[in-house]
Amino acid sequence: MASPKTVEGPEGQQKVVLTSSSGASAEVFLHGAHVTSWKSNKGEELLFMSNKAIYAPPKAIRGGIPICFPQFGVLGPLGQHGFARNSMFEIVEGSGESVTLSFRPSAEQQKQFPHQFHLLITVQIGSDRLTQTLQVQNEGSEPMPFTTAFHTYFLVSDVDNAHADLGTSGLTYQDNTKGRAESKLSGSSVKFQQEFDAIFVGAPDTIKVVDEKAGRTISVRKEGLPDAVLWNPWADKANGMADMGHDQYRNFLCVEPAVAASGPIQLESGKSWSGTQILSLDS
Ligand SMILES: O=P(O)(O)OC[C@H]1O[C@H](O)[C@H](O)[C@@H](O)[C@@H]1O
């Protein structure tokens, strides 16, 4: 397959633009293999991007779809969400509709995480969907522990008029705002009305992001990823972030297919593992 072309994005960073035959499109930066845009075939943007995002390493880009790897959150010895989102990837192959990006840790990164691995991220645009696969191969001689997530920021008209529907009532979750204390959902949906930061262990394989005001539903389907993290930082935390615009917390909610509290996965030497998220625009 021919290598897809890159174009220059903010701060001189290279990005790949994918376009489906129907006109849907996506943008993927080599920095972090980070998807920063997914547009429907009508041209409407479906992902949230901060208007103060920083596009250059060593910062992760705020918004879109950061890849948390080889650690989700603070569930391990590394800095929050691991180093892949702060690192440069290389293009392996692709076409107009898909691209595969590759990353191997530097000697410096292996000092913090003493494992050799090969990470491949594939992003594919379809007429009504965006598919992302994370594949990791343990190239070292010891088992490699990891956790991971697709940290997807969905754009919503206003968080007051949006919710995440898990499809099952009364699920329990670990509440990150309360030291991972167990809590229970009263219905099957999460309405974001204050800071919400929760790990659903063994979450349903499909979660819907519903924007009532825009009349839009996106299904988040996950394969090989047992958990889901739901997050909105709310006003105080978001307005304290240097790379988040004022009150922009109202315009997103995160649904993050993950191996979080179910992990870490212990990947044997020479073995590979993969996980996929499929985002589809239902209406
Ligand atoms: O600010 P970041 O490092 O990108 O993390 C953003 C958020 O990611 C996840 O959703 C975690 O559960 C949150 O605790 C964290 O605040």
TrEMBL record:
Give the Enzyme Commission number: 5.1.3.15
**SUPFAM superfamilies documented for this protein:** Galactose mutarotase-like
Pfam families (alphabetical): Aldose_epim
Keyword set for this entry? Isomerase
Q: Which residues form a coiled coil?
A: none
As for family, the record states: Belongs to the glucose-6-phosphate 1-epimerase family.
Instruction: List the active site.
Output: 151, 256
Residues that bind substrate, according to the entry?
62, 80, 85
Q: Could you tell me what this protein is called?
A: glucose-6-phosphate 1-epimerase
**GO MF assignments:** carbohydrate binding; glucose-6-phosphate 1-epimerase activity
GO cellular component terms given for this protein: cytoplasm
Family matches, as Gene3D superfamilies: 2.70.98.10
Q: Does the keyword Ligase apply?
A: no
Originating species: Apatococcus lobatus
User: What processes in GO biological process is this protein linked to?
Assistant: carbohydrate metabolic process
PANTHER family reported for this sequence: APOSPORY-ASSOCIATED PROTEIN C-RELATED, GLUCOSE-6-PHOSPHATE 1-EPIMERASE
- The top EC class is isomerase
The organism's superkingdom is given as Eukaryota
Reactions it catalyzes: alpha-D-glucose 6-phosphate = beta-D-glucose 6-phosphate
Recite the lineage of the species. Eukaryota, Viridiplantae, Chlorophyta, core chlorophytes, Trebouxiophyceae
